[in-house]
Design goal:
Mean pLDDT: 78
Number of helices: 22
Low-confidence stretches: 1-15, 552-567
Radius of gyration: 24 Å
Largest sheet: none
Oligomer: single chain
Helix content: over 70%
Length: 567
């Protein structure tokens, strides 16, 4: 029995993925489970605290530690993998020594940076939440200082993630975000009743530790052995720094954008930041499941193709990933718009989260949903530029998008706060908010959606101008079919809602859930049926990738050709 369990455990930790699409499917499944837990987390938070100031404080406290975490986690992996791959091809021992060297230097650097932020937190929080009172800022400072433990842990975890990505061990990596959310849920459900918001924060720290711990066995099986090496002048350190330094400003700008949005929300009506955060969390579900999963899975192959001079293969890969992402996110975007009220009521409608909170959050979520397809394509385009070792272009485009986001947010806050504004009246009519006098919180998702559209268009234009067409006529035809099938599926869901409202009691959770679930399943079934009838080839890609995972000798992972699946 022990031998059997050992084999099963080893198989999980040592599992290697054979194709990019299947790797993306593993990451997408993991992201889906993690997001389901995240939605459960949000429901528990909404029930425990409502859309009030306590949750505003919690969300504001996250911003500075999240800023540090996202900069570290997003930049280290992108810079580490190409250099590690170069060393590992020549001498495995040198590659592992480089890993420990980078890990040691990064740990010291992160520790110093976290210490500086710990000391400077009282000066930083007023910038993040200028609308808070003195007491609210004081609590936010204390929570933020405790949350600084999580980026310290995630900094180490990011190196292990890079190792697992390089060795195609996406399965074990996929458990990390699930355990992270499980830790937060433990904090909300078990610790918060006794410790309040402090219990939630301790749950975040526990989740970060679990995120790290689950990846250690997989990294060890790959050959990693932890050790202290401190040689900052090593050539590999310089190479990593060359790739890392241009990436950091991009991530800094992205996170500064979030901090500015938080500052604007803190100056609006009580609960505005909570409404924005809840809607943003739901918006990020399909973006993480599809966009980030495909971008992460494709990045190693894109890097290999560009480094080997196979530019035609590179363009085909980018085109294929774009089509596969669009195949999944376009119908989801439209179904989310149709079912936004049902989704919000099911996920968040409990306890102190009342009907007005639900209506405003549903409106924000609907605005976000309109551009989910653009938000999901952004990480794909960014990885394409990173694979070409071009980190300047994403920086410039991101800076432009962030500038547009901030300008639009300030403008729409002013417009939506104007009691005689035609735009505000039109927004109330379209979003069914006629009884609301204050809808300024909707300025944030509206500006974010506009900036996302601008960003993805700029990425596509620059990629086309510099490196040639990556979307041919067949791709446009395929995406046209996707849009057509998605619109028809959304119409089916929309027209199914009214008769379903007669059959179910919409004053009860079960009734709302049944109405939304049945309408969503009907729409999804119609989409799959139309995709099959219209011969949308991306549907076959997913089926063939599953088959190839269990017949790995047909095509090695490194030579996975997207066109062989699509023709």
């Amino acid at each position: 029995m022990i031998s059997f369990l050992r084999k099963i455990t080893t198989g999980i930790f040592a599992n290697e993925t054979q194709t990019v699409t299947f790797a993306a499917m593993i990451l997408a499944t993991s992201s889906l489970v993690a997001d389901i837990l995240g939605l459960l987390r949000d429901r528990l938070l909404a029930a425990q605290f409502g859309a009030g100031r306590e949750l505003d404080i919690y969300n504001a406290a996250f911003r500075i530690p999240d800023f540090l975490f996202l900069v570290l986690f997003g930049s280290i992996s992108a810079a580490f993998i190409p250099v590690f791959a170069q060393y590992h091809e020549k001498n495995k021992q040198d590659a592992w020594r480089l890993t420990n060297n980078l890990l040691s230097i990064a740990s010291v650097g992160i520790g110093i940076l976290a210490t500086v932020m710990f000391v400077a937190m009282p000066a930083l929080i007023p910038l993040v939440a200028p609308g808070f009172s003195h007491e609210e800022r004081s609590v936010t400072v204390s929570l933020s200082r405790l949350l600084l433990l999580s980026p310290l842990v995630f900094g180490i975890s990011s190196f292990l993630s890079g190792i697992l990505h390089y060795f195609k061990r996406f399965l074990i990596f996929s458990f990390a975000p699930i355990l992270y959310n499980a830790g937060i849920i433990f904090g909300v459900a078990v610790l918060a009743p006794a410790w309040g918001i402090w219990g939630v924060v301790w749950g975040v720290v526990i989740g970060a530790c679990l995120h790290l711990a689950i990846q250690v066995p997989g990294a060890m099986l790959s050959g990693f052995r932890p050790g202290i090496v401190f040689a900052p002048l090593h050539p590999g350190i310089r190479q990593t720094a060359v790739l890392l330094i241009p990436r950091i400003p991009n991530l800094i700008l992205t996170n500064l954008n979030i901090i500015v949005m938080t500052a604007i929300a803190s100056s609006l009506a009580v609960g505005s930041l909570a409404v924005f955060t809840f809607a943003d969390n739901l918006r990020s579900v399909p973006v993480g499941i599809v966009g980030i999963s495909f971008a992460t899975a494709a990045f190693p192959n894109l890097s290999r193709a560009w480094a080997a001079g196979r530019k035609e293969d590179f363009s085909l890969m980018v085109a294929s990933v774009v089509r596969e992402v669009m195949f999944l996110v376009v119908p989801v975007s439209l179904l989310f718009i149709v079912l936004r009220a049902q989704i919000i009521r099911v996920v968040l409608g409990a306890g102190r989260f009342d009907w007005e909170d639900t209506q405003l959050t549903a409106a924000a979520f609907g605005i976000f949903s309109a551009t989910i397809f653009a938000q999901a394509l952004i990480p794909v385009f960014m990885r394409a530029f990173f694979a070409m070792k071009d980190t300047i272009t994403p920086l410039i485009i991101s800076a432009c998008a962030i500038g547009i986001n901030i300008i639009c947010a300030l403008y729409f806050v002013s417009v939506l706060n104007d009691p005689v504004s035609f735009v505000a009246d039109a927004a109330r009519d379209v979003l069914h908010l006629r009884t609301f006098s204050d809808i300024a919180a909707l300025a944030l998702p509206l500006s974010f959606s506009i900036s996302s559209l601008v960003q993805v268009v700029l990425f596509a234009i620059v990629l086309r101008v510099r490196y040639g067409s990556f979307v041919d006529t067949a791709s446009w035809v395929s995406m046209g079919k996707v849009v057509t099938a998605s619109v028809m599926a959304a119409m089916v869901s929309f027209f199914a809602l009214r008769p379903l409202s007669v059959w179910f009691d919409l004053d009860r959770f079960t009734g709302v859930f049944a109405q939304g679930a049945i309408a969503g399943v009907l729409g999804g079934a119609v989409y799959i049926m139309l995709a099959w009838l219209m011969n949308i080839k991306e549907l076959r890609v997913y089926l063939s990738s599953v088959k190839r995972q269990f017949a790995p000798k047909t095509l090695p992972f490194a030579e996975d050709r997207y066109t062989s699946q699509l023709k």
